[in-house]
Specification:
This protein is α+β, with helices and mostly antiparallel strands and 176 residues long. Helices cover 15% and strands 35% of the residues.
Length: 176
Amino acid sequence: MTRATRRGAVRVVIVAAAAAVLAVAGVGPATALPAARPAACPAGQLHGSFTDLQGSTGHYHAVLVVRNVGAGPCTLFGYPALQMFDAAGQPLTTSVTPDHFLGRARRVLLRRGARASSALTWVEIPPEPCVTPAHVGVTPPGATTSLTLLWPPQHNLVCGDGAIDATPFLRGVPRF
């Protein structure tokens, strides 16, 4: 092998190695741009409901379920913001505390028709200051508007000055 042939072979090896390193690093002309992450779910793209209503000895639990009814996917990351209202539509004292029982917040991708949920717990033990909600406004994380749901009528007291614990939104609807 002549000196020129060896140099040519070494150049081919170096170029191939460099291309392999760039490909592994995700750089190069053949690399596609990463897909854009769907935006946060706006309230108007979600339908909400309560399920799994349970309670005993003054402690109550419900699962807030949201379903994507929009045309495309969206994401939820974090906790729902809640505002309770009385039967006349007046805001009631509402205090939401993050509940880490089911783990930390994770980004939840909601394709059309998919559901996510947040477990809510509260206390109905008077004589603490209690409120009687008729509706609750639910603002998804990252959204600026809310959807309004009927508060479960069989559990119409929220004591502790409207204190509710909420887990982060999780994919699907867990059974408790």
